[in-house]
Amino acid sequence: QQQVKQSPQSLIVQKGGISIINCAYENTAFDYFPWYQQFPGKGPALLIAIRPDVSEKKEGRFTISFNKSAKQFSLHIMDSQPGDSATYFCAARLYGGSQGNLIFGKGTKLSVKP
Amino acid sequence: DSGVTQTPKHLITATGQRVTLRCSPRSGDLSVYWYQQSLDQGLQFLIQYYNGEERAKGNILERFSAQQFPDLHSELNLSSLELGDSALYFCASSVLGQGNTGELFFGEGSRLTVL
User: Fold this and answer.
1) Which residues share a beta bridge with A23?
2) Mean pLDDT (10-residue bins), chain A, 114 residues
3) How many residue contacts between A and B have a Cβ separation below 8 Å?
4) Contact list, B30 vs chain A (CB under 8 Å)
């Protein structure tokens, strides 16, 4: 119940295309769902996040879609650019926040071809 | 720059040895987290400290230990090292309580190679 399952493991998209990464969870006590972006040699950095009372959140070209009943959420990258090539991690945090630790998916390596 | 500093960036050692990884959190962040990143397991939560006290424990081996000091920096101690301990070790920090946005700020990691 503590797992977050992420797919696909890797993704190749043409420049200008849409990149879609999916995550699923079991534990309904998760209350915060962020996406982190990691470039080679760097630590993960927060990209966008959503709470379960919202079905969609958009920031620029990045959108999170959240389906509470299906316990699934996804990241959409519109007009994908070569600079978006990175590894993306979805994550979830248990309600209560006093701990604050995130449970991460295994990551998706995105390559955007020019 | 996340504001989280980790040292050393790279470390090569032999099996059976002990190493210490160090982390300085962002100014004002009381909570420190340690994560292990390997190719097949992704980012695995190890342990969290809040203002000097252990707050949560994840998949941390008994050979590993951590502490957070009064100046809020943290150290992760890895002992009796095995080949399988080779990984990237990340430290992250966050604000908890008032002002908590949920965001973790990660350092650039310490790459440990055990030969």
Assistant:
1) A6, A73
2) 89 98 93 93 94 93 96 97 97 73 92 96
3) 62
4) none
